[in-house]
Amino acid sequence: MTSATDPSTALTPFPDHTQLPESDGTFVKNFQEHPQSILLTDSIKPILEKRHPDGQYCIGQDSGIYWRITDPPEKGAEAPDWFYVGNVPPTLNGQTRRSYVLWREFIAPLIALEFVSGDGSEERDKTPWKGKFWIYEQVIRPPFYGIYEVNKASVEVYELIGGQYQLLTANERAHYPIHPLGVELGIWQGQYQNMELPWLRWWDLQGNLLLTGEERADRLTAQLRSLGVEPEA
């Protein structure tokens, strides 16, 4: 005796973020990468809140972007050190995102950033179906891709033009405008979280550095003291 099968239930559904590994088990590469991600997120948050008053955006920090189904699953993901996706909810069904799954949401990140810890060859690898550069350019397709090298105090920014990444030329401030966000990206030499380094940072399109919450508070304190007002502890 045979029974009818409902084709809609017989098909294996594409997995979602709760069914995919959120890590490949590797270590964070150095002590600078996590503070660098926090610095980028903290300083651009007021811009994103103004851009998305409904709160519909998400930021990934060393989080996986799944772009194809493989075995093991994590081989089908890239994990930019920092990326931003607009017009998507920050949580899914009340759950914190474990990863970003392209076949579930379709919207590509606007910008993906990689922090080089080796010689940079991995971030520039154009090998089809394997190289990071190729996967970002041909599959994930964020309009902007940045490669930041703290040891060289440099950042390369590529824009997706005509289906291929074109290396952008820095402006007169040595920054790279990201016009859809109304910001510039560049290198800032200074101290953050007790480390003096050439950090990757944001500026507005007029060249004003976007400050972290702590920097904004420190500036306000200095302004009050200049007026003879001692801030409350």
Automatic annotation (TrEMBL):
Q: Which stretches does the entry tag as region Disordered? A: 1-24
Q: Kindly give the InterPro entries that the UniProt entry links to this protein.
A: Uma2 (IPR008538)
Q: Name one GO molecular function term.
A: endonuclease activity
Polar residues composition bias: residue spans: 1-11
Keywords for the protein's UniProt record, in alphabetical order: Endonuclease, Hydrolase, Nuclease
Which Pfam family, an example, fits this chain?
Answer: Uma2
Stretches that traverse the bilayer: none
**Ranges for the Putative restriction endonuclease domain?**
29-188
Instruction: Reply yes or no: does the keyword Nuclease apply.
Output: yes
Put simply, this protein is called Uma2 family endonuclease
